[in-house]
Amino acid sequence: MPQASRAECPSRNIVNDLSGSDSDSDLDTDTSADLAFYPAYTFQASATWFRWVKLTAHDIHCVLEPHHKYAADITTSSLGPGLPDHRGSGGGGRDDAPLLLFYLNHPIQFVQVIGVVVVVEEYFEKFWLFTVDDGSGATIDVRCRKPEKEDAREQNDVVNSTKSDKQSGSTRIPSNAGKEIRHDMLNAISNKDRDGHNITTTSTSSSADKSKSTIAHAQPQPQSQLDTADTDELTEDQILHKTVQALQIGTVVQAKGTISTFRSTRQLTLLRLTIVPDTTHEMALISSRTSFMKLTLCKPWVLSAADQKRLYREAQDDRQQGNRQAAKRRERRLKMEEREKRHARSIREQYEAEERQRAKAAEAARRAGVALQDDATTQ
């Protein structure tokens, strides 16, 4: 696997060069020790928590840092069934688990990178791997897991059935529609990420036409295998996989995902991918990244005591509600188990009564047969 180039990591004062701030407002690295790191239940009030944070590869490698305070805490319950939990800087003991990192004291779980694809690895069996260079002095590897063989066959079946359904005029509902729970959560994050540029909208199932247009514009080659008539009924993962397969060296992409590690090197686990169609959109994204860096990331996150108390009460209420719901689930499970036991006991008693009746009937038939034989012998 190609390793991302890791330049010498300067102090956080590099953000001042990006933001264009004066020397009087420079954030000295000595002040990082005075930053307030709030409890995990307050992360939802951060401007970076439920957002695709625009960062450079250099920021991901050198500026983002973990914090020992969250080494063992589960910091979020919002990821849904399709994503693993964030467990501090160690990733819950998994090398490829998403990391909880901080820019100053801003908690970050989802990031996006805008850059040029410079390496495409097509020889791995279980995942795609490509490298993005955004001109920040470092590159980052982007990893996307390939679908399992059954999912791949199902995906081909969806494409084939879509073609046949369009010819016959019928419609088809995807069999893996249950995965929309995770996609709805990610789409909500995308909707929350408002920066005034339509290009930041991720390639969702509701915006499949937009993804198709950008892909067709950026990759007109036949090998892209992205027919506008075939992607209408594809699921989110299938659109993502087809977009990754269409990548070529030199393609400008907007990659969104979570940060993980491989051999102590940070990489991006892909969740969304958009091909940037032209330089205008690319410059708009870069301008938005610089603006967000200047207005939000370069300033420490400050949360008032009143907001902390309010969030604490909300967290306590959510925990109590969760406990009540868990108690109700346990009660329903116990009632179901009791009902099943009662039904099983009733069925067993009924079976035993039927067995006794059959035994009595068999005994009566045997005696009648014996009596009939006795009558025949006497005659």
From TrEMBL:
Residues covered by region (Disordered): 1-26, 147-231, 314-379
One family name in Pfam for this protein: Stn1
Sequence ranges of Basic and acidic residues compositional bias: 147-156, 179-197, 334-366
Polar residues biased stretches: 157-174
Residue ranges occupied by any CST complex subunit Stn1 N-terminal domain in the UniProt entry: 100-146
Keyword Phosphoprotein: no
Alphabetized GO MF terms: DNA binding
Record keywords: Chromosome, DNA-binding, Nucleus, Telomere
A cellular component term, taken from the record's GO annotations: nucleus
Protein name, per record: CST complex subunit STN1
Source organism of the structure: Capronia coronata CBS 617.96
